[in-house]
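Key result, reporting period 2: structure in, sequence out.
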């Protein structure tokens, strides 16, 4: 399938500087087959047809392209949360496009060109829906681009305030990143650490998943950490979308429920609008200011679970 993959690489190289704003605005060039790509298709049309003659080959190419597009979206705007339906629609669109390329018998500007326009109309519609669901469409149209990047393990440990006591039992990094660098660093030091992330591959120490259903550990997690991941997304939901904010509030309490008594949830940035609602008889909260070059007021938080039970504030004083 080397020729078909070369066609894909050619297309990716042409659009490497495409922004998320370009997609949601319907940039015209995305809907057209360029002259160089048209020449490539004309020259290799029969080879591509043979390479994509089987259903399994078409499916493999479509899955690879769909996953690549979703990864691109999450890298360009990390607060997007593709649903199962969103993922299925993206894959269906790439399947349809792959079928047209495989079966094309006319000039590339013909059926393939028409299909490419329809394909990008569908991707635009799906992307618009995902951005609206998290209240971010106006931000993107105004040029916002909160690109997701991984920080060094040492910097993460410093910001979160990880201590030796935090590493004595099982540790879970939620939103650990595709490379799970903090998890790998801690395990290299002999500490029992695992991670979950929507982009992670399942290789033992990091599992695909999200913070809405954090895994359990025997006896509970000693420490759960989230560096510029869960709480950053919670703040975004709090500011943009009431329904998403409610989901995050439920997830926050679920995370605390996964802790051992005496265990801690360490995260940055802090969540003062939630932390002040916790029952002080069950949770001890410490927020530590972070000293930024810009002078901004940002903190990291440590929430320690004192006893088992609900973290909701009591309706009346028990004394």
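The corresponding designed sequence is given below.
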């Amino acid at each position: 399938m080397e020729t078909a993959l070369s066609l894909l690489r050619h297309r990716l190289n042409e659009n490497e500087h495409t922004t998320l704003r370009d997609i949601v605005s319907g940039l015209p060039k995305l809907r057209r087959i360029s002259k160089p790509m048209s020449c490539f298709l004309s020259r290799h049309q029969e080879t591509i047809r043979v390479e994509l003659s089987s259903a399994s080959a078409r499916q493999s190419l479509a899955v690879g392209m769909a996953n690549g597009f979703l990864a691109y979206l999450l890298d360009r705007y990390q607060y997007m949360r593709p649903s199962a339906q969103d993922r299925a629609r993206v894959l269906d669109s790439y399947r349809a496009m792959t079928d047209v390329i495989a079966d094309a018998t006319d000039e590339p500007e013909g059926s393939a060109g028409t299909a490419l326009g329809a394909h990008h109309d569908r991707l635009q519609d799906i992307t618009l829906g995902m951005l609206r669901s998290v209240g971010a469409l106006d931000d993107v149209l105004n040029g916002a681009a909160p690109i997701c990047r991984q920080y060094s393990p040492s910097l993460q440990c410093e910001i979160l305030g990880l201590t030796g006591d935090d590493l004595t039992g099982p540790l879970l990094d939620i939103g650990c990143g595709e490379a799970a660098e903090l998890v790998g660093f801690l395990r290299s030091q002999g500490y029992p650490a695992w991670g979950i992330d929507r982009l992670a591959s399942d290789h033992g120490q990091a599992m695909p998943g999200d913070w809405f259903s954090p895994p359990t550990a025997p006896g509970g997690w000693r420490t759960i950490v989230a560096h510029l991941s869960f709480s950053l997304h919670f703040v975004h939901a709090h500011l943009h979308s009431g329904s998403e904010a409610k989901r995050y509030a439920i997830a926050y309490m679920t995370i605390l429920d996964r802790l051992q008594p005496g265990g801690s949830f360490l995260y940055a940035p802090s969540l003062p609008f939630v932390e002040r609602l916790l029952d002080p008889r069950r949770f001890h909260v410490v927020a530590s200011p972070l000293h930024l070059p810009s002078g901004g007021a940002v903190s990291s938080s440590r929430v320690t679970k004192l006893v088992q039970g609900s973290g909701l504030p009591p309706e009346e004083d028990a004394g």
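The longest strand covers residues 259-268. Residues 314-319 have pLDDT under 50 and may be disordered. This case is discussed further under Risks and Mitigation.
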